[in-house]
Design goal:
heterodimer; A: 5-stranded mixed sheet; 10 helices; elongated; B: 5-stranded antiparallel sheet
Amino acid sequence: MTQEKILVIDDEKATLKMFRLFLDVYGFDILTAESGEEGLDVFERERPDIVLTDIKMPGMDGIEVLQEIKRRSPATEVIVITGHGDMDLAIQALNLDAADFINKPIQRQSLEQGLSRARERLKLAKSRQNEVRTRPHGRALVVEIQGSVSSHSEPYLREAYAKAKEAGSGRMVLHFDPNTSVNGAGIAILTQLVLESEKDGMEIVMAGLSENFRKVFGIVGLSRMVQIFDTLDQACA
Amino acid sequence: MKPYARISLKNKIFVSILAVILIISVTIALLARWILISGLTKELEQRGVAVAHSIAERGGGLVLDKNYPELLNLIFDEARLRERQHLINYIFVLDRGGQVLSHTFTVPFPEPLSTANPIAEGSVHSVRLVAVGSLTSYDIAVPMNEGLYRIGTVHVGLSKEHIDKLVAKLRFMFLGFISAVIIIIFYVSHRISRYITSPISRLTNISDELSRGNFDVHLDLGEGLDWAVTNCPAYKDTNMPCWHFDEQGRKSRKAEGKTGQVCATCLFYRKREGDEVIQLADSFMSMVWSIRLYRKRLQESEMKYRSLFDSGPDPIFVVDCDTELILDANPRTEELYEYAKDELLGLSFTRLGHEQVKECLSYLEDGRSNTGCVYYPKVLHYKKGERPFYVNMHACPISYGGKRAMIVAVTDITEMMEKDAQLVQAAKMKTLGEMSAGIAHEINQPLNAIKMGSEYLNLLIEQNREVSVSQIRDMATEISQQVDRATDIINNLRAFGKKSGLVMERVDMNEPIRGVLSIIGRQFSIQRITIRLELGDDLPVIKGHNNRLQQVFFNLLNNARDAIQEKMESEPGMWGDILVRTYARDGRVYASFSDNGPGIEDSVRNKIFEPFFTTKQTGKGMGLGLAITYGIVRDYGGTITIDSRPGEGTTFVLSFPCAEGLQTPEPKAGRPQPLPAQTSRIPE
């Protein structure tokens, strides 16, 4: 199998060096660039499948790189690297359809998660399966969510919600696939549904959320409105 | 003449009058005695001669008749006639041959007597002093003639005793009279001389009293002073000029056309009718009152300044310039320096302020300052027990009790400096806060690399992969370098956050600039601002504090950044550019910060160093950054100039004087130099 090409853009030479070592272990074909501009040049030349970019860089920053890459090639998965605690930038990047964000200092686990999510999304993009599926599970209705939750997901989510209401089940479990990503529009829809469910006397819980999304939901306040469980079984119990 | 000069004037007059009168009296007495005594003797002699002639006339016939009893009768009658009996001792008559014809002796005729007084041939009579027994007589011999013939001689003996008695009586009367005259003159002249000299002695007494400093002596010189001197307007109003000033004032005011506070007619300075002594007394009195007046003014002035000295809120010393001893000190000095007053007096001033005193003295001696006074800000002084504190010190030369001295006024600025330090520290903390984002980013970089390195090693171990020695060495070196990098940043931060000591250190200007850039340099580049450095090599060192200078430079860079970002809002895509240059010129070290921001309006330029002035949006800036920057720069003897063209950018140029005596910087250390041991601190 041909190795996936990955481009890492970071102004820190030391960080680039570490990425090379890591990504070699994970079996990627590694390209590096020390600035946003250089990164775009490399991207143009090599067309990598995945791009890792630091947000804070002199000159062209990571957000601009993300925008530019998404403009040139929407299918390319971009993972942004943020400084510790730069949640605003993380959310901004997610809104621009970044696959994930990784906090510096980079933990191997989050890096692996990010990379696997990107790979999954790449596969998903090829198959283009339905991203939202529903299935009853006891009294609750489980909504399986894959891919990315964005404005495209709204009708599917609405449909699932209507189904749950119709079935009269008191609980709707939103089960996120590990590779799911959420953007700003997606969060807005989720929030909307949660607010409506309170009026309709229905309970929405979430499960399978990755660490990063828990954080994001925490920031936007969604986690205060819904219960979040680690696994589907806990959520259905 | 010397003894004469020693005699008092009174005695001079007295003795002079007396001497003159005595001389005249003695002359008169001698003259009178001579005239009277000789006249008296002559007269008595004449009487004797007349008696003798009378006997010779009447006795001639009796001698010729040889009627001797009758002759005896005649001479007895003549001798015993009334008062003559006291005058005439004897009478006898001799014949031509010198035989005694008759005599009045009741004893036998003393023979020698007949020849004792012969009459020369041709003379009318002869007088000679003869002694008969115990008696001495003037023997008067007169020839007894009958026609042309001489028939005998009549001798009359006048009692010398009687004559002497008369003369003595006369002499006694004269002497008595003259004595009486002298006594009267003595008394009168004494009174006169005393009268003449008494005002002078009073003046002398008064002036003696004045010399002793008793100005309250009663001036009883003239009579008829019907007003008190306290009525004089100048006496009550010390602002009013007194006589001679009054006169001058009148003239000058007339010239200026002003009416000042002058008396229409001077009450005080007027002359009484009288002799020279009275004139002298008047003028003396005026002088005394003038002196009193000025003394009173002097006392008032003295009291005024004394009270200023005593009640002044700041310590004031009077210090002898030659011995450096404290001659006087006001009560505040006791409070501040914690010495008792008697300890302070006579204490060397160098005990209170070690270094500046000599410098100050030489400065005053040179007369280098225009006003004669020198000012030393932020000088270290010592309380009792060598506890240091900070003061501002003024010193002015004066003359104190005939000695060269200086007035030293100090202001305790410890509290102010404390507040200052607190403010600077607070501003620094704020600065640190502002820097925190940059710092976090900066520290995150090495941490990230280290984390990734360690995670990589873990990964390799988990996957049981072969790790080559060179890989491990690579990784270890990389991790170590990254740790060093983080340590540097932390050290920089620690130095920056540390409270500066009061003692200034030698600083190479490039160091704080590099220090600041190591913290915020990347932050700026991320914000699309390039900082270009043109740092001069081998800059002379300046005196200051590394971390305060960092604060200054951070403030300037931060302001430049804010200005540039303001401009970026209207011109997206522009790149900020800050040029930092350091160079030395004419004994000063310069640092210039040029940005390509929007520049500073002329109207604002003069205000930007004022505290609480800010052009930033409300809540963004306190307006203290540049004020504190300015304060710090000024403390190091530096200046700030601004060159700005609106729309094109701003250049701040800082200049500092080189540290004295060292023109080349010390060998540069790779790491920030640790702060020197702090010898003193403001009490916290």
